[in-house]
Amino acid sequence: MQRRPTPPATATTTGPDPHESGTAARLLALLHRHRCTAAAQLLRGLCYGVGTGLTGLASWWLQQHL
């Protein structure tokens, strides 16, 4: 019986099986792949939150002083 030669390694590699790793590991892998988009969305949310807070403070201040 002859042995078959080992197949050549493929050029692409696959990541870890998502079913084997936990939810946190999958989330970290997703954030690593999309870190630029995640950072932009975080900055956008922060700006919206600061703007809403300042608007609320300004309205409260105007109501107290008028």
From TrEMBL:
Where would you find the membrane-spanning parts of this chain?
42-62
Q: What segment(s) does the record annotate as region Disordered?
A: 1-21
Q: Which UniProt keywords apply?
A: Membrane, Transmembrane, Transmembrane helix
- Which protein is depicted? Uncharacterized protein
Which organism is this entry from?
A: Streptomyces echinatus
The organism's taxonomy opens as: Bacteria, Bacillati, Actinomycetota, Actinomycetes, Kitasatosporales
